[in-house]
Amino acid sequence: MSSVVNTLSAAFQRYVPLIEAEMRAVINAPVQPRQFNVMLNYHLGFTDSAGAPASAPAGKRIRPVLTLLCCEACGGDCRHAIPAAAGVELLHNFSLIHDDIEDRDELRRGRPTLWKLWGEAQAINAGDAMFAFAHLALLRSAEHGASAERVVRAMRAFDQMCIRLTIGQHLDLSFESRSDVTADEYLRMIEGKTAALTSNACEIGALLGGADDATAQAFADFGHWLGVSFQLQDDVLGIWGDPAITGKHDSDLAHGKKTLPVLYAAERDARIRQGYLEAGALSSDAVQPMREMIEAAGGRAHAEQAAEEAYARALAALDKTGLDNAASHALRELARSLLGRAH
User: Fold this and answer.
1) What CATH number did the domain enclosing 304 receive?
2) How far apart are CA 246 and CA 264, in angstroms?
3) Residue-number span of the structural domain to which 204 is assigned
């Protein structure tokens, strides 16, 4: 096991600088107004709000690392997929910029969000630019040795993912005004909002690595279930995680979030439906009693079991590829680390 962990750690150390260098090359390439450029670099964690270099929290870069690992697992040259991996991360950050506006979140990774610093209109515009840069990044794969045919296939899959992502966000936003959301509806929503991107990250990595259709689909399925497992683990941490570790100052319950533990428990205890789904966000002194009620109704155990089941389905999809190499071992360890994480 230690050699596998070392393989995963080495992959992050090798890949992340390459991914971030490509991201910088893409977003800084055209001649841009300074503030426009600062906004992009600030959100990605490359600078502070004045444009000075900063080592701010910038996310774990898990999705682009998945792209490169899947490429190498298929026997491909990761250099062909680095632009696509950068595109995956840029697309993810586009979604975060818009999500922050739509959810009225004032902090992202411990810093003020774009809209909080520069206003909604400018933040929307910066998000739109990030979306376009993500596509330009993926297209650069052809300049790095990927075949044009493979790049076109990857771009089609990328754009199909964008539609699934926005549908997932549509459903999530619609849930805010509803008190009758079901656990099954929630699972369908996260298959779009969260799992679509992890699935696509793996699929395009496999495509650029030369995988055949069946293998590319198996990697897409791996990424899909990995994304579902990731989100369900996040749901558990959002209610029962240690704020000092998760970085969340308030429980998801204080923000009125409708996640799987809550919805499952509400279907089994009318007090939770009436006291939370129908009442909205909780006062600070009501959070702990509600947390205990949700756990007593089986919400935590169900979400943890569902996360384990999704993780098992992810590994089963990876097994279908029949691949057994350092990159595929690192993918397994990455999946395990995401399920067992504390933040």
Assistant:
1) 1.10.600.10
2) 23
3) 2-339
